[in-house]
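Preliminary data (for renewal application), magnesium ion complex.
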Amino acid sequence: MPDTTPAMRAEGVHKSYGDLHVLRGVDMDVHAGQVVCLIGPSGSGKSTFLRCVNHLETVDAGRLLVFGEPVGYREERGVLRELPNREICRRRSEIGMVFQRFNLFSHMTAIENLVEAPIRVLKRDKEQAFEEARELLDRVGLSGKEHCYPSALSGGQQQRVAIARSLAMRPKLMLFDEPTSALDPELVGEVLAVMRDLAESGMTMIVVTHEIGFAREVADVVSFMDHGLIVESGPGEQVLGNPEHARTREFISKVLA
Ligand code: ADP
Ligand code: MG
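Predicted structure:
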């Protein structure tokens, strides 16, 4: 029988910051190989949701499973216990995350950025890590830039290094939080092209983005989030082309304006 465990499952996820109820019962399934684009207004909880998936935040209620396992916890006779840090790190290394700001190590060259965690955290063989890093930089169109420091690279190039750095951990799930929002418009395309390639290679991805064209073309599922809830979810042509809910329509018309 094929393995039907979702790569990521969110069931009724709630998260508050003090009195602010940010996630109000988020449900989402992402299957292996799927690309889900998460769209929605600023402040609706998209980043918070991704941070919960990655266990950078704990959830207040509901369940988050990544490859069938609770994120950051293990279940013991029906009781959830937070995992030791070491184990959280191991599981988190299976999830790559790319942020709006590239967050590269500024004192390291491109290739040093890529090999740092595989060698230090995953204890990979040094030579092999460098070899794989070169291949990854080539894959994101940056062969020849191995020894450049981030400050010598454009925003688009830095973001491609950041994507390659995530891939160097051999993640099974990639999370992107508005990866092109900080870029000059002429640099957006080169980053989206890398993400499109990655999607075509079969990577499972959750992408928070305002790039409606990308969502329409690449996403298997587009989900619209508003006020901490998934309001509407489905194929791009439906959610983007013929949305059911007034809030979705209003949002899309604003983004496309
Ligand atoms: P989005 O990514 O959709 O723009 P966020 O998830 O960043 O939304 O934020 C949702 C809401 O949660 C916002 O009102 C934001 O100010 C608030 N928020 C996010 N992170 C924190 C935090 N660490 N502490 C307090 N409030 C937060
Ligand atoms: Mg955000």
